[in-house]
Design a protein that fits this description.
The structure is a single chain. This protein is an alpha+beta fold and 152 residues long. The strands form 2 sheets. Strands 1-2 form a two-stranded parallel sheet. A two-stranded antiparallel sheet has the order 3-4. It has helices at residues 13-20, 31-38, 44-54, 69-80, 86-89, 93-107; strands at 60-65, 113-118, 131-132, 150-151. It has 6 helices and 4 strands.
C-alpha cells in the first residue's frame, strides 16, 4: 500500500504528527505540500492521492479491517495526549468505520487504487503465507517480464 495505515483523519492529528516528526521540511514533499503542511492544511490522504495521480502506471492497494483496533488505539492515544483531541480519544468502532468510508470515498476515485475492507478488527491482513515486495516494476502493462520478489 502507499501508506502503512489509513491516514489519521480526526481533526488536528496529522498536524500534531507532522510537527512532532518535523515532516513539513522533508525533501520528499512537493513545494505545494510543504506550503500546505506549514499552514496545517496537509493530510496524509492528500499526499497519497497525489502520489497515485503522479504514478498512474503503478498500482496502489489497501487492505484494512472495518474496525481496526490498532488504528483506533493509535487515534485514542494521540487524542488523549497533550493534543487534547476528545473526539479522537473517544472514537468508537462505528465512528472509525464511518471515518474510514468517508476517507476512502476520495481515494477510490483513482483508477489505479483498490481497497478491500475485511469484516473484523485486526490490523494487518494477508490471504497467503507469502507476501510480495512492491517495486517500481509493479505496474500495468509491464513488458519487463518476471514478477516481484516474494518476502516471507
Amino acid at each position: 500500500a502507499g501508506v502503512l495505515f489509513p491516514p489519521a483523519r480526526v481533526e488536528g492529528t496529522e498536524t500534531f504528527l507532522f510537527d512532532t516528526w518535523n515532516m513539513c521540511h522533508d525533501d520528499t514533499l512537493t513545494p505545494l505540500e510543504k506550503e500546505r503542511c506549514l499552514k496545517g492544511e496537509l493530510l496524509l490522504s492528500d499526499m497519497f492521492v497525489e502520489t497515485m495521480r503522479r504514478h498512474r502506471e503503478a498500482r496502489f492497494g489497501m487492505i484494512n479491517s472495518k474496525v481496526d483496533h490498532i488504528q483506533r488505539l493509535f487515534e485514542k492515544m494521540i487524542g488523549a495526549s497533550g493534543q487534547r483531541n476528545i473526539p479522537g480519544a473517544l472514537m468508537t468502532r462505528g465512528q472509525y468505520y464511518k471515518w474510514l468510508n468517508l476517507l476512502l470515498q476520495r481515494e477510490i476515485l483513482e483508477p489505479n487504487f483498490r481497497v478491500y475492507l475485511v469484516d473484523g478488527k485486526h490490523h494487518v491482513y494477508t490471504s497467503q503465507s507469502t507476501v510480495f515486495q512492491t517495486t517500481p516494476k509493479s505496474c500495468f502493462n509491464c513488458t519487463h517480464g518476471g514478477g516481484p520478489a516474494p518476502l516471507y
